[in-house]
């Protein structure tokens, strides 16, 4: 009998730079891991109270960090981590901090279409490397199309309420689990890793879960 894939659920937000770094580090770990895995992305809005059309990036950073300069110190850490993972973060291209609920609905839809990981990657690239406003339907449709989804189907979905209740329920589940920050990785519903840990930490955790499954 073929062993079932090891399940990895990732609570994440597409405006979280450490989530992008964590994705790349997990991908490197999976290249070293001898076993099948199935990844599912779960929603976690870092800024659920933002207006529907988002917020000016400078105003957002000043409200959250006190000033853009204060953010620069954190930005340097992210840029260094991104460089190590070949992520060309381009923070200066980002004009607005978007509300990400629509993006999470797209990610939910993409799971049903078998393109979830590709869509998450497209959203990260669009936002962090191109400065795309991923709070807007037209931008989301374009990024979904790049990831292999049918643009018209995506547009119809986003213009409806499809997936809204499901995304809210998934996010509520994450908060019930005590998740307060992302990225957050849950392996087979038992073992958890918080934060964008080094790839060898992921490899170690994956092997531990695999050994438990083999017992």
From TrEMBL:
InterPro entries (alphabetical): DSBA-like_thioredoxin_dom (IPR001853), Thioredoxin-like_sf (IPR036249)
Domain of life, per lineage: Bacteria
Gene3D superfamilies linked to this entry: Glutaredoxin
Protein name according to UniProt: Putative thiol oxidoreductase, DsbA family, FrnE subfamily
A GO term for molecular function: oxidoreductase activity
Originating organism: Nitrospira lenta
Location of the DSBA-like thioredoxin domain: 8-207
Pfam families hit by this protein: DSBA
């Amino acid at each position: 009998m073929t062993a079932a894939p090891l399940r990895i659920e990732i609570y994440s937000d597409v405006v979280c730079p450490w989530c992008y770094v964590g994705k790349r580090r997990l991908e490197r770990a999976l290249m070293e891991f001898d076993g099948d895995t199935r990844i599912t992305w779960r929603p976690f809005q870092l800024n659920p109270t933002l207006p529907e059309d988002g917020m000016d990036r400078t105003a957002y950073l000043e409200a959250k960090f006190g000033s853009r300069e204060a953010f620069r110190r954190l930005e340097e850490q992210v840029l260094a981590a991104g460089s190590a993972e070949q992520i060309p973060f381009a923070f200066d291209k980002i004009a607005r901090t978007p509300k990400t609920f629509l993006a999470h609905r797209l990610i939910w839809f993409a799971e049903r279409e078998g393109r979830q990981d590709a869509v998450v990657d497209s959203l990260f690239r669009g936002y962090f490397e191109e400065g795309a406003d991923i709070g807007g339907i037209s931008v989301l449709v374009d990024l979904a199309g790049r990831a292999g989804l049918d643009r018209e189907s995506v547009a119809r979905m986003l213009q409806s309420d499809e997936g809204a209740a499901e995304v809210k329920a998934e996010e509520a589940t994450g908060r019930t689990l005590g998740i307060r920050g992302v990225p957050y990785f849950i392996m087979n519903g038992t073992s958890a890793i918080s934060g964008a840990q080094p790839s060898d930490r992921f490899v170690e955790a994956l092997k531990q879960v695999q050994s438990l499954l083999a017992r």
